[in-house]
Amino acid sequence: MSHIPRPILPLPPPEYASSYFERLVRSITIWMNQVENPSEARHSELTLTGLQGYGAGLRDGEIYEDAGILKIVRSTDVFAAPLSATGSVGTVTVAIS
After folding, report:
1. Sign of torsion, CA 70 37 32 57?
2. Is the Cβ–Cβ distance between 8 and 23 less than 8 Å?
3. 74/63 Cα distance (integer angstroms)
4. Could you tell me which residues come within 8 angstroms of residue 29 by beta carbon, excluding any fewer than 6 positions away?
5. Half-sphere exposure of residue 87, counting CA atoms within 13 Å on the CB side?
6. Per-residue pLDDT of the chain (97 residues; tens, 9 = 90+)
7. DSSP string, 53-97
8. Which one, of 52, 86, 93, lies nearest residue 71 by Cα?
9. Tell me, what's the pLDDT at 2?
């Protein structure tokens, strides 16, 4: 989710005032609309750091880097997380005569 600035809430008056609650509700409503309805962004420069190197575990629309190529996760993509394993079986005896 993009960074959405927190709303600046109005300071409460010393006594109850309906106009204060109207301003408070309006501020919270604007903030909720911003959170629920992301908007477009335009940049002349963008630096992305710390990108995941594979798409496993990411949600639809999130990005990752694969061998220097920026990729976007789609709902139809299928990923397997990187896997490594080690194991051993039995023992080996070496005799030198």
Report:
1. negative
2. no
3. 10
4. none
5. 4
6. 456 677 788 888 899 888 998 989 998 888 888 878 777 777 888 888 999 988 888 889 999 999 999 999 998 988 876 678 888 888 888 888 7
7. SS-TTPPTT-EEEETTEEEE--TT-------------S-------
8. 52
9. 56
64-78 core/surface letters (b: 16 or more CB in 10 A; e: else): beeeeeebebeeeee
Residue 1, pLDDT score: 47
> Phi and psi dihedrals of 33, rounded to 5?
-65, -40
> First-to-last CA distance in the chain?
68
Cα–Cα separations (whole angstroms), residue 60 to 8, 18, 37, 85: 32, 43, 16, 29
In the structure encoding, which two tokens stand for residue 76, read together?
């139809």
Whether the Cβ atoms of residue 61 and residue 73 lie closer than 8 Å to each other: yes
State the Cα–Cα distance between residues 44 and 48, nearest whole angstrom: 13
